[in-house]
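Here is a complete protein record:
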Amino acid sequence: MNSVDFNGFRNLDRNTGTIAKVLESKSMRCNYRDKSPGLIALAVVGNGYTDDAVLRIADRIPDGQSLWVFSPIHRRLQHPKLLRCTHVPAPNRRVFQRKVLSHVDAFLKKLPQGTPFSPHRLPFPTESRNYTWPQYSPEADIRHTVTVEREGVPFEFFSDLRSTTDKLVVFGQDALTRGVLPLPYFFRWKWSHRIEASVMILNDPTLYLDDSLDAGWWIGTQNRDYAAEGVEIVQVAMNKLGLKPEDVLFVGISAGGFSALQMATLLPGSKAISEIPYLTLFAGGHIEKVANQAISSCLGFESAQEVPESLTSRIDVIKRMEQAGHIPDFLVIQNDQDRRHMESQYGPFKVNLPNLEGFNPSIHKLMEYSQHSLVKGGHFPLHENVLLRLVDNMLRGDLPIGDRLSNEEITIA
């Protein structure tokens, strides 16, 4: 299995619409004409398929490719292009679908490093540095973690600064499950060596204000704007590398998407990529309880509606841009299958954004795509390879055209 040059799946059963969506949600190919060697074609076949029908599917597989069959009934099949036929017993269709996805996930986890689904990784750095603000002195060409103590607040980040690049990418922090992921936690540190830029990955110090917070959105306190203080630390690294704000890209997913836009707004000239982001804590519905918990712990108000106008920029991206009088160049990416975020976050942002002075749709990009997972619904990130392609494009100033990412653009190859 590990010897297979695994580049993706092709779903050959056009009648399993839900399964097809699951596979697309895993960023797998759905291209019946792709004759690239090494591909594994995936056929999900139900009781209505005879063994001969399955073998005819195998006959259609291009030379150099293999077929992996999933079936709810036991089959004994032999064909030179048949990689395996997996029996997936299940009491109903939904359980069958979940089991198929589990088999696929298990397969991907066993792939050798160097394949598209399992890229090469470097180990987490063992070296660390501790500073007291404003004595932070960035070091290049050595991967390490950094703590900058600033008036009793630890600003912690993963540092992979490089003297040989002319760009800096700063990743924000997703929401996390306290008690499961320890702080500080640096999302996507494994990606850093794959990026043609210096990299910083931030831990949100707001989380230390309340042990029950899963997301802090870099709110800070009434007297301290943690997002602004974090940007000042980024600027020190930027200056040390001889870069300008135009060379800095903030990247974040979900809660990290909120901070990416906030910080890019606070550093005029910088850019942001924000994927399936939170954009306002004023929204009701599913976010209201966790948002109000953070607002209470950080700002001392019971709800977003009680926050005075002078502090609303901390909890709303549009308010931050209004206060700053600046809209950074950005790419906001939203999965239209993420229904709750479409309604409470992305939708209001899309409506209100054109009202801001300076709005320009050619540099303030909103793009949608469509992926669905039986396990996660619609609120999950694009595959690493896809987001890194977008990061590379943004660094080069090559933004996608249009207002929608196609299925081809969100595949991993």
Remarks:
- Confidence is low (pLDDT under 50) at residues 1-33.
- The chain has nine helices and 13 strands.
